[in-house]
Amino acid sequence: MNKSELIDHVAEAADISKASARRAVDAAIAAVKTALQNGDSVTLVGFGTFYVGQRASRSGRNPRTGKEITIKSATTPKFRAGKALKDALN
C-alpha cells in the first residue's frame, strides 16, 4: 500500500472526502516527523512505537577500490511493532 492508497482507505473508512483524508494523513506524518526531530518517541498503543536510534560509526570498504573507509555515525528513525500488530500478523 502506498500513500495514495492509504488516503483512499482512510477516506472510505472514515466516510470523509479524499481531500480531508489527505490532510489528515499528511498531518499525522508531520506530527511523527516533528516529534522524532525533537528526539521524542511516538507511541500508538496497539500499533507500535516510532523512536530515534543511533548508529555508531564503523569501518567499511569502498566497493570500487577496496580501500577501507570510515562510515560516520548517524541518527536514524526506527519502529518497534506493538503486541497487537504482531498478533494480527500471526
UniProtKB/TrEMBL annotation:
<dbReference type="InterPro" id="IPR000119">
    <property type="entry name" value="Hist_DNA-bd"/>
</dbReference>
<keyword id="KW-0226">DNA condensation</keyword>
<dbReference type="GO" id="GO:0006351">
    <property type="term" value="P:DNA-templated transcription"/>
</dbReference>
<dbReference type="GO" id="GO:1990178">
    <property type="term" value="C:HU-DNA complex"/>
</dbReference>
<dbReference type="Pfam" id="PF00216">
    <property type="entry name" value="Bac_DNA_binding"/>
</dbReference>
<dbReference type="GO" id="GO:0030261">
    <property type="term" value="P:chromosome condensation"/>
</dbReference>
<dbReference type="GO" id="GO:0003677">
    <property type="term" value="F:DNA binding"/>
</dbReference>
<dbReference type="GO" id="GO:1990103">
    <property type="term" value="C:DnaA-HU complex"/>
</dbReference>
<dbReference type="GO" id="GO:0042802">
    <property type="term" value="F:identical protein binding"/>
</dbReference>
<dbReference type="GO" id="GO:0030527">
    <property type="term" value="F:structural constituent of chromatin"/>
</dbReference>
<protein>
    <submittedName>
        <fullName>DNA-binding protein HU-beta</fullName>
    </submittedName>
</protein>
<keyword id="KW-0238">DNA-binding</keyword>
<comment type="similarity">
    <text>Belongs to the bacterial histone-like protein family.</text>
</comment>
<comment type="function">
    <text>Histone-like DNA-binding protein which is capable of wrapping DNA to stabilize it, and thus to prevent its denaturation under extreme environmental conditions.</text>
</comment>
<dbReference type="InterPro" id="IPR010992">
    <property type="entry name" value="IHF-like_DNA-bd_dom_sf"/>
</dbReference>
<dbReference type="InterPro" id="IPR020816">
    <property type="entry name" value="Histone-like_DNA-bd_CS"/>
</dbReference>
<dbReference type="GO" id="GO:0006270">
    <property type="term" value="P:DNA replication initiation"/>
</dbReference>
<dbReference type="GO" id="GO:0005829">
    <property type="term" value="C:cytosol"/>
</dbReference>
